[in-house]
Design brief:
single chain, alpha/beta, 16 helices, Rossmann fold
Length: 390
């Protein structure tokens, strides 16, 4: 691997989504990520869909879920429940820069691999964890030992309370954001801690809680409640503080439009052929438009429903922020996605190539030009476990 993190050695003890997404980000930027799996492998290896062929069965390969977030990594198995596995792991810790794990509270301690133990062995090691409710070392939550998944974090941290059509129908966000956003934050924290080491400091414990992360993502619920004394509620695809800022119907579909500033609103009115609405006292400022949002959307849709989605976007583009509501097929054919290399094709052990999402982090120099496929279970053990090599 090449990239700005080339030379950074990461021991990856994570499984499923949150931890692997974090270490994928590091690997995409050039870190040498060594995925250490139990003999049975990451449980997500079996999750589909599977591009099965005669050359490879589902059992000996992996599905799309694992393929997408474990690219650019190597794999070897160690059984940390055995003294031999722990001894081998300790040797790897000696030359590692970062360790990432997403076990429940106390699991690593029971292996004899607590942060304190590993810090004593390698004071430069950055030890990073994702847990549902954080680690007691940085703040003891009453839920600290409870398991958590994406939907739990979305529910408890307030995201679902403002997502959906109304209070009676809270809605989870489609992607596993309760896992993915904590992963992004942990990668950020890791790089800050690595920088601290490079400036002469010691390694430290970096802790991200899923609940905490989603609360920070849903930040407006906090200040709205603080200022108004009222808990904000779902309101579909519009915005409680900005207008127009939502979805509008066209003759053949739906388009997203954002005109929250007064200049954007006046530009939208010009395109609609109704410049007088830009000076209408009911709609003159954003505060006015929020107070009269139903009328605003009626006026906009009275125009937009006369045209196709393509025509509406063409009319607004360059003047007013807008975009089609794309599905996966639309995205696959979008020239932006091709230009930005946001869909990449990697080989699968079955003999076919599969498409996965590319890296959104771009650099003008020291970039990684190619992606390697996710590893087979224990694929790199012969090299991985050589003395002095990780």
């Amino acid at each position: 691997m090449t990239g700005p993190l080339h030379g950074l050695r990461v021991l990856d003890l994570t499984q499923v989504l949150s931890g692997p997404f974090c270490t994928m980000l590091l690997a995409d930027m050039g870190a040498d990520v060594l995925k250490i799996e139990p003999p049975s492998g990451d449980v997500a290896r079996s999750w589909g869909p599977h591009p099965t062929t005669a050359q490879e069965s589902e059992e000996s390969s992996y599905g799309g879920y694992f393929a997408s977030i474990n690219r650019n990594k190597r794999s070897a198995c160690l059984d940390l429940r055995t003294p031999e596995g722990v001894t081998e792991f300790m040797r790897l810790v000696d030359s590692a820069d970062v360790l990432v794990e997403n076990f429940r509270v106390g699991v690593m301690d029971r292996f004899g691999l607590s942060y304190e133990t590993l810090h004593e062995r390698n004071p430069r090691l950055v030890y990073a964890s994702i847990r549902g409710f954080g680690d007691p070392r940085t703040g003891l939550s009453p839920y600290s030992e409870a398991p958590a998944f994406d939907i739990i974090a979305q529910a408890m941290a307030g995201l679902m309370s403002i997502t959906g059509e109304d209070v009676a129908h809270p809605m989870k966000v489609g992607p596993g954001i309760g896992d993915i956003f904590p992963a992004v934050l942990l990668a950020t924290g890791i790089l800050a801690a690595v920088r601290h080491v490079e400036k002469g400091g010691e390694g430290q414990f970096v802790d991200v809680g899923m609940y905490d992360s989603i609360l920070s993502l849903a930040e407006r619920v906090v200040y709205q409640h603080s200022i108004t004394g009222v808990s904000p509620e779902p309101q579909g695809n519009t915005h409680p503080l900005l207008c127009p800022y939502g979805l509008i119907r066209t003759s053949d579909g739906i388009v997203a439009v954002a005109s929250p500033t007064d200049n954007h609103w006046r530009a939208l009115c010009e395109v609609m052929g109704k410049p007088e609405l830009g000076q209408d006292r009911r709609f003159e400022t954003n505060v006015d438009r929020v107070a009269n949002s139903a009328e605003v959307y009626r006026e906009v849709e009275a125009w937009s429903q006369n045209f196709s989605s393509t025509e509406v976007v063409a009319a607004l583009q360059g003047k007013v922020p807008c975009g089609r509501v794309n599905n996966a097929s639309d995205i696959a054919s979008d020239p932006h996605v091709k230009a930005r290399n946001m869909i990449v094709h990697v080989p699968h052990p079955s003999g076919v190539h599969i498409a996965i999402a590319g890296s959104p982090i771009k650099f003008s120099a020291s970039t990684s030009s190619t992606f390697t496929r996710a590893p087979l279970l224990n694929e790199h053990a012969p090299v991985f476990l050589e003395p002095q090599t990780i």
